[in-house]
Amino acid sequence: MMMILSGFLAKLKGNMNKVKPIGIGLLGAGTIGAGVINALEGKSDLLTERIGRPVKLMGILVRNASNHHASSNIDLPFTENAEALITSDDVDIIIEVLGGEHPAIELINLAIKSNKHVVTANKEVMAKHGMALLHNANKEGVLIGYEGSVGGGIPIISALTHQLATNEISAVQAIINGTTNYILSNMSAGGASFNAALNEAQMKGFAEADSSYDVNGDDAAYKLAILSSVAFRSAIHDVDVFREGIESIGPEDFIYAKELGYCIKLLAISKLEGQFVRARVHPSLIPMDHPLAQVNGVDNAIELEGDLVEWSMLQGPGAGSGPTTSAILGDVINIGQKLDSAGLKPNNIEIASKYKSLPLDDLETKYYLRLHVKDLPGVMAKISRVLGDMNVSLATVIQKEIDDEAESTAEIVITTHKSLEKSMQNAIKQLKSLDVINAICSFIRIEDSGFSKS
Length: 454
Fold this sequence. Notes:
Blueprint: H1 2-18, E1 22-27, H2 31-42, H3 44-51, E2 55-61, H4 65-71, E3 78-79, H5 82-87, E4 93-96, H6 104-113, E5 117-120, H7 123-140, E6 144-145, H8 156-163, E7 169-175, H9 178-190, H10 194-203, H11 212-215, H12 218-232, E8 241-243, H13 251-260, E9 262-273, E10 276-287, E11 299-306, E12 310-317, H14 321-339, E13 356-357, E14 364-374, H15 379-389, E15 394-402, E16 409-416, E17 419-420, H16 421-432, E18 437-446
Parallel strand pairs: 1-2, 1-4, 2-3, 4-5, 5-6, 8-10, 10-13, 10-18
Antiparallel strand pairs: 7-9, 7-11, 9-10, 11-12, 14-16, 14-17, 14-18, 15-16
Helix pairs in contact: 2-14, 6-7, 7-12, 9-10, 15-16
């Protein structure tokens, strides 16, 4: 029996060698591109087994092919000719890992027009142009895989378009930037300053040399735009997403947060509110027993509310070459399995413009404020008067003297009951004008109700 099975497998492998391979054109050979190259080489047998056809790397687009040839240990098909690679008859799938909006969007459009299937991990392109790309791909009869654009190793796009497709999703709440989650986790656990935590993240390869894209909230905003568009089946553009970064958060905020029963996370939140969607990315205080409070390091996690599933959360690694490569090759396998299907029809989801975007002004939530003030009688009364005039009600007040040789200074931490965002912003403007206020150090929204099972 073993001899028969062995003979069958050998014959099957021999037949596989005669089958025309699926040709891959890779755009980019940076960190992610290198991960894809290594996985295509190291997992070639597994890919053949999963797809039913071998996969062959036909070309790798780089800026300087000579330099790459000189530095590579193996002979790889580097090229500087994007058009020749994309339009080649030997290429079936284009994998785009260039990053950034240009020239990636132009090359993806060329691939679609050339009847090539596309796999991309480009969050900026999908956030800004995803709706048009999916529509054009359906028109041309090709598929677009973009699992790698959100969540790293979390298969969230697949979950939303397949396993959870019968749900009407009403809310998304997520930690979707591994760099900032690592920084905030480090600051929380070890009391590090923002700069020290950022430097450590850079040394460990969890943050780019220029990490402004991550720490200012742009990366998470792009991902939230994609997630919201797919979840709600309505175009949510990156400009529709309010964003605020983590640069102003200090180690003191983590101490006060713990004292109040919270931790601090950079949250990406979008919710349906009637015929509107409000999408926002900003630091948030969340209760210590909240599921997202347990997500640390470079991990990502995404919570969903649906009418059938009610509540669901997916968690996994969100930074690094491995998780993104996993998502990219998952899309390659999915497309590869469909290439030989008779009468292949593209099944890219169509995203309409069903809902309008809501500004943050009428958001109603609780708030955390940390102030440095002159340590004088009547200061708290002045602060309370300003907040009261703006219909902002105080929930808790913590006051501590701080060491300041120049003048007698106190640190005041305030949390509020639910208030309107515009009222808080107006209050902050008024507080800044008071002569007893030395600095408004931190302003953080509190998210502690109405979403998860906790």
